[in-house]
Predict the structure.
Amino acid sequence: MDEKDDTQPESQQVGVDPAELTRTISELKRELDELRGRNVELENRLSGKDPRAVQDVSVPVEAATTISDMDATLRRLVQRIAMILQAEKVLMMFFDREAGELMGIPPAYGLDEDIIRMVRVRATHGISGEVFREGRPTIFHDAVTDKRTEGDPFSLLHVHNGVTVPLVIEKRDDENRVIDRTTIGVLHAFNKRHGEDFNDEDVHLLERMAKSAASIISNLRLYQEIVEEKEELLQTLESLYAGLVVTSNEGRVTQMNASARAIFNVTSEVIGRDVRDVILDDEIRALIVSAQEGNEGNQTEATISTDGRMERTYNVQSAQVKNEEGRQIGVVTIFNDVTELKNIERMKSAFVATVSHELRTPLTAIKGFVSTLLMNDDFPEEDRREFYTIIDHECDRLTRLINDLLNIARIEAGESLKPHYSDVDVRALCKKVALIQQQASHNHQLVLDAPDEFPVIVGDEDKLDQIVTNLVSNAIKYSPEGGKVTIHLKMDDDHVLIGVQDQGIGIPKEHLSKVFDRFHRVHNEDNRKIYGTGLGLFLVKHLVEQIHLGKVWAESEVGVGSTFWVRIPIQLDVAKAEELNK
């Protein structure tokens, strides 16, 4: 026998008193029972069986405390195993189903955690695998000569001898009968002190301690899984685009995601506050109360504005939250932002009315002049020509409107406007558009501001004509008092800039980012008599960005005028553009 090691505690140098052993095991059982009770309570709270669950929203903090307690108990258990069995090292190994391996897990005794993480054994190899598979404990007296240890990393751990038992979880019925046994890993005790060997009594003691260890590990992992599931759920709720508010039966906020906090301009400190202090809208409050009373079909529309922000419209729905037993534990309220949907509905209604007017105006003119010509054949040639000219112009107006509608329908359906690319003289194109538009308006002066030499670009000439015509027509339309409309041509590195500037009524800042949206029209006192479909600029945006891979934007000042800019490449990547427009 080796000489006495003065550096070890006295309890590890001599045999252990049976009374002391009994007290130790009783203490461990008490701690285990406490942990089991806390675990049951936790499961009930997380599953909604405990009414306190609705009010408990600080899961991470609670989890850390409980996991820490379990870990501390497990560490004490490992230390006592080493003390009782007089072992230099104690190691637990847990079965990883995906890898098919037994892997070392902390806490351990006499081993560094860095070493523990390196310990992995196939479940088909070594003493570790044998004990795990067969569920029977074993003793080995010489790790070097015992062939069963092949595959175990005992040389890495400096193991001489040891005892290994399975870590088994037992499920029992109400009469305390074992109804299921699951082996989750193995428990090792290595290197009996003072040169002694492990014996059957050590096996018996280690098996009893292994039951406690397995139960703690099982509870710890179950707890972690439950916490992770709830944390995942909370993160999912937090990332929802819709606003979500959960209130308890007492009317206090228990959960409020980021979208809801933004709607009501509050911070995460809102948890625990009375919902009436957070939601000031009487109609929403009444909705929550109605849901709490068990009424179904609780929904409304509410317009909410906070700290001077633009008003937003929300579809608000409330419903009871019940646990697995069907008992009410709170109310959930969902806020879906329908502002844009409402705007589109309003714009579509205005669009239908506008298109009806746009169609009726030229048809009325055509019908009137045709009827006049039919009723009287004696009109002078000059008058007849004037009538025919007006009819021709109104037919062109109808054609443009119908083409716009057809093009928008194709864009909305995801179909491309088939481009035809060629070399385009942008300067000549803009000059032609200016001359044609000048004929349509005698109140405006159209000017081309362009250098004498301007590069030929690659593009779809017909659609470039459509872009410039639409912008110039808009400039004339929204300059009801006349004035100058200027078409600017500039160079910008390997791009050209086409700008159409007017001296009209201008566009308010809040509408600048929306003027290219379909159906959008700026309605105010100055332009209420200016008719249009609100589709022209939407079509321009598509022709610039989709067909020519360019960019379009507007600059404006109310009462001064607006400038619309188009930036397109000189040498268009035709292959890329054609691929995009298939």
About this structure: Residues 200-238 form the longest helix (39 residues). Confidence is low (pLDDT under 50) at residues 1-16, 45-65, 523-531. DSSP finds 17 helices and 18 strands in the chain. The radius of gyration is 41 Å.
